[in-house]
Design brief:
With 194 residues, the chain is α+β, with helices and mostly antiparallel strands. It is 38% helix and 23% strand. It has a six-stranded mixed sheet. A hairpin with a 5-residue loop joins strand 2 and strand 3.
Length: 194
């Protein structure tokens, strides 16, 4: 066998082996999330509220799914509709996996957020989104549990989106504004890990 041919083939095999090793290491490396990681994940506080059709909803009803939880009000003209539009697009980018994600929109303005106003507001986005209302007495402990600041009758409020995993743990938060790609990308990473 020609020595030049032998060394050429050996060199090519070494390059291929090195590339395969690097690819294996990169695949196994933990990938960074776009959202802020809650480490260790903590159990999300359960709650019971009423949805836009009058049904009773418990956060724990969605164990087995990822939940994107946002606090806002149905008459909002800026951050709330912008966030719902982002979540609509993020779910769209998930394709068939979107069925594994539930969006919950919790009222910060129980005085004016009726079932009807929540239904009208969310109808502009995704038919699977649920708008949740309740009395001030029901909502205040929920706001406190999630660190949501509510002022000015609900019109001034914290603007974080919370990602809760299928086991009911808070995993990530997203500050306003976030992109659909950031949220859908994180969900795809989580889908691969489960």
């Amino acid at each position: 066998m020609d020595k030049r041919f032998f060394w050429t083939v050996t060199g090519i095999l070494l390059v291929v082996a090195l590339a395969a090793s690097v690819a294996t290491v990169l695949v196994r490396m933990p990938q960074a999330f776009a959202g802020s990681v809650i480490n260790p994940p903590t159990l999300a506080s359960d709650f019971t509220l009423t949805n836009q059709t009058g049904g009773t909803v418990h956060l724990s009803d969605y164990r087995g799914k990822y939940v994107l939880l946002f606090f806002g009000y149905s008459h909002c003209t800026d951050q709330c509709p912008a966030t719902m539009a982002v979540l609509t697009q993020a779910r769209s980018e998930l394709g068939a996996q979107a069925d594994n994600v539930q969006v919950l929109f919790v009222s910060t303005d129980p005085a004016t957020d009726t079932q009807q106003s929540m239904g009208v507001f969310l109808a502009r986005f995704d038919p699977t989104f649920l708008g949740l209302t309740g009395s001030m007495a029901q909502l205040q402990p929920i706001w406190k549990d999630y660190g949501v600041t509510v002022q000015d009758g609900g019109e001034t409020h914290s603007s974080y989106t919370y990602l809760i995993d299928p086991s009911g743990n808070l995993r990530l938060t997203y500050a306003y504004p976030s992109t659909p790609e950031e949220i859908s990308g994180d969900l795809k990473l989580l889908f691969r890990k489960n």
